Amino acid sequence: MIRKHLTGMEKRPHLDILLCAPRGFCAGVDRAIQIVELALEKYGAPVYVRHAIVHNKYVVDGLRDKGAIFVEELDEIPDTGAPVVFSAHGVPKSVPADARTRNMFFLDATCPLVSKVHVEAQRHFAEGHEIVLIGHKGHPEVVGTMGQLPAGAITLIETVADVAGFTPRDPQTLAFVTQTTLSVDDTREIVRALQAKFPAINGPHKEDICYATTNRQEAIKSVAPEVDAMIVVGSSNSSNSLRLVEVAERAGCKVSMLVDRAAEIDWSRLEGIRTLGVSAGASAPEKLVDEVIEAFAQRYDIKVEARVTARENIAFNIPRELRTIAAAVGQ
């Protein structure tokens, strides 16, 4: 019986894991989280945050445990003088204006690369351009960008088909900007369609899709054709994470899935795999990537290899109000 038991024990199958790099937190997300944590350190709880500071459930829950209170609108915040933080996605101009009317103390955690798009849209408007925004309807970044200008100043374009149906007031005074977290390939197709239909259209001085989105998609493209399955760590409301799954599928990895945590892995879709790619959206912490790899280590004899396609060393300054406490706590 003992011999039967021993011979019946199956050796764990081997699994090669290609770990995409860059992955996970970008400079804008890191800055936004720091702003909430430093505000809690300096001012104490509660610190109110308008909308999820970044689109990751684990991050939001962790900040909530530390004393952050998340709201969707300013009128949900009691008149206590507690700090209010605006999320990394940016907000319409009406939001800080409303906060000033209410005498609220607020800190703006808008990613500087999103703020750059806001500035571009305002510049085009000042120059008399009609503006097209390439993006996803309802996404907070799109709401924030459209909210920089009067109603009707920006037209949202989501697809190439939208381009075909779009008639501007004057094709000679047209400009476009884009959401920062889009599919690079999809956006390129839409831009080409706009340029073909409206040759005089003005574009950004520098591409609006942020470096982190581009780098993570390029890393996925490098790995996806070589693996049997791809895991992207990220939340379902994260635009850049969803795009990574789409990019993996288009690059040839048909078994690609988005998971918030290791507990969400659908093992039934992974039967028989010998190679796995792992990445993470720009708002997903590395701790959750480690958790996913550990889950595979429990089932497979794993070998992990990093596939590095770019190096990132970008950091953004935090608001002046928090720099002293940041120095004190070593951030």
Number of domains: 3
Beta-strand content: 15-25%
Number of strands: 12
- Write the CATH architecture name of the largest domain: 3-Layer(aba) Sandwich
Q: What is the radius of gyration computed over CA atoms, rounded to a whole number of angstroms?
A: 22 Å
Helix content: 25-40%
Q: Keywords for this structure?
A:
331 residues; alpha/beta; Cobalt-precorrin-4 Transmethylase, domain 1; Rossmann fold; 3 domains; five-stranded parallel sheet; four-stranded parallel sheet; 12 helices; flat; disordered N terminus
Helix-strand layout with pairing:
Elements: H1 2-8, E1 14-21, H2 27-43, E2 47-50, H3 57-66, E3 68-71, E4 84-86, H4 94-101, E5 106-108, H5 112-126, E6 130-134, H6 140-146, E7 154-157, H7 160-164, E8 174-178, H8 184-197, H9 211-223, E9 229-233, H10 239-250, E10 256-259, E11 275-280, H11 286-297, E12 301-308, H12 323-328
Parallel strand pairs: 1-11, 1-12, 2-3, 2-4, 4-5, 6-7, 6-8, 9-10, 9-11
